[in-house]
Specification:
- The chain is globular and about 45 Å long.
- By secondary structure, it is of the alpha/beta class.
- α7 crosses α8.
- The longest helix has 19 residues.
- It is built from 11 helices and 7 strands.
- The chain has one domain: TIM Barrel (Alpha-Beta Barrel), CATH 3.20.20.
Amino acid sequence: MHKTVSETRAFAETLKASLPRAKRCSIVLCVPYVNIPAAMKILKDSRVSVAAQNLHWEENGPFTGEVSAAMLAELGVRYVLIGHSERRQYFGETDLTVNKKALAALGAGLRPIICVGETLEQRELGVTPELIAYQVKAALNGVTPEDMRHVTIAYEPVWAIGTGKTATPEQAGEVCEEIRAVLRKLYGARIARGTTIQYGGSMNPQNAPALLAQPDVDGGLVGSASLNVKDFLEIIYAANQE
């Protein structure tokens, strides 16, 4: 919940003007609902796609304050964030609702970015692999191999969100490798290799190169560092390296 419409407009204009050097990676900007039209207008002729931060799984109904997949699709949104740890922690989202939202997004032609991750207590208990595997399987229940072409998985350890703590490159790489192993069992090696798996959790310009160098870390779900255009661009340039 950051940036007004005018602030988003200024951010998008600066970002768009600074992108010529960033040609290798895909860039998606997740903005609040009310900022989507402004961001879409400025970024429509750029390489930056616009995403929503959430959606409701129903097509319509008595859900005051909610936004449907069809509403987002008509705006031209391509991606939608689903199951972010803050949604789970503060708004009661569950693995079941994450799955419903993923299916709704895919049904409307959107590309879901599905978040999974463990708390510090769960990591200390040593259940991270089992928990992450469950979250991935639950989120993808009913998702077809064909639909997997449009799905991104983001590993965001809850203990590293907004805390300044970051998983080591090795920790991030291990969990992303485990996620790919789950995808391999569910969909086969080809789809597992082709699925984008991101790391999210206090990624910043300083740690991004090492995190992104991990074989199974295909990109970043950038949080607070993305609020500053300069910092965000540094991470984009890190993702552009061979």
